[in-house]
Amino acid sequence: MTLQTCYITSPSAPGFDVESTFQLIYIPRGEAAETSKAVTMVFTDRLAAYLAGVILSHLALTCVFLLATLAAVRWYIRDSYKVDGFSQKHVLITGCDSGFGNLLAKQLDRKGFQVMAACLTEKGAADLAAAASPRLKAFLLDVTDSASIRKAVESVSREVGERGLWGLVNNAGRSTPIGPTEWMKLEDFTKVLDVNLLGVIDVTLQFLPLLKKARGRVVNVASILGRLSLTGGGYCLSKWGVEAFSDSLRRDMQHFGINVSIIEPGFFKTNVTRIDLIDANLRRLWSRLPQDVKDSYGATYFDEYVKAQTFSMGLLCSPDISKVTRCMEHALTARFPRTRYAAGWDAKLFWIPLSYLPSFIADFIVNLILPSPKQKM
């Protein structure tokens, strides 16, 4: 019996290895035609199966892409729905002397809201009232004083009546003193916590009955430093507390129709980031340190630390604070407000992603910004 050698060839295709699929075949001469047909059928079946797999995989990817696109479009449309009747809605904002609170008060006033702007100083209240419409009511409020808050509740209650309070924006805050933790005393922490955290809690608790009447909104201003602590002192600690308080409040109050939103600004040019105030407080902290502590940091550490703060604030701080107030406004006017709003590209693209990385990576990156003590290990 004579044997004939038969080779099978085909155009190559990605993922389709002909050589591994078909081997060298020895065919008896009399059976060549039948065997050739069989081999052709096997080849055709394998090629068809491969092509079907390619088509199905591409179809699956297309379906995933379409579903993601539809979900994004649905989210965008849902996010754009607004409540109505702005002129009948009362909103209380704390910390309106300057910065975010001041701009938000003017912004909401222009949209027709009944704005009640709480200021710490008489000058702040007078300047804001002069820059807004007669609808806006500016008054004094110290968020660290429960008696002052009770007085504000009585005044606001008379103003809103049975409608209740639609919005409470806890914006009042302070940053200093900040610096290395070893430079702090207990009162340095309490000064900041009293305003940024305990003040937020006290104001919210006292105004909750009015908010429940309106099924309103609570908007708490935290910070990206409520996710990632960059410096010692009470500021980062207080903002982490605001995040936790807001999460608890949201879960408790959703049963009563109250929405709670957290604003997480990046770095913006406000009184909180004024480098002259930060510098003055750092000098005060440094001057009271024992000499042995100063020696452990080194003679040049203080100047290097101040330079690092000045450089980072100058590089990161955005002058466009409307990026933050637009988030606040959305939380008050959207039919479906978000739970969290990250304001500023530094928050969205750097700080918040950094907060999800392993701690040793975040520590390494943060330590690149700040100087090292002389006597480090």
TrEMBL record:
It comes from Astatotilapia calliptera. Pfam families: adh_short. The chain crosses the membrane at residues 47-73, 349-370. This is Retinol dehydrogenase 1. The lineage of its organism: Eukaryota, Metazoa, Chordata, Craniata, Vertebrata. Belongs to the short-chain dehydrogenases/reductases (SDR) family. It comes from the Eukaryota. Keywords: Membrane, Oxidoreductase, Transmembrane, Transmembrane helix. InterPro entries: NAD(P)-bd_dom_sf, SDR_fam. One of its GO terms (biological process) is steroid metabolic process. GO terms for molecular function: oxidoreductase activity.
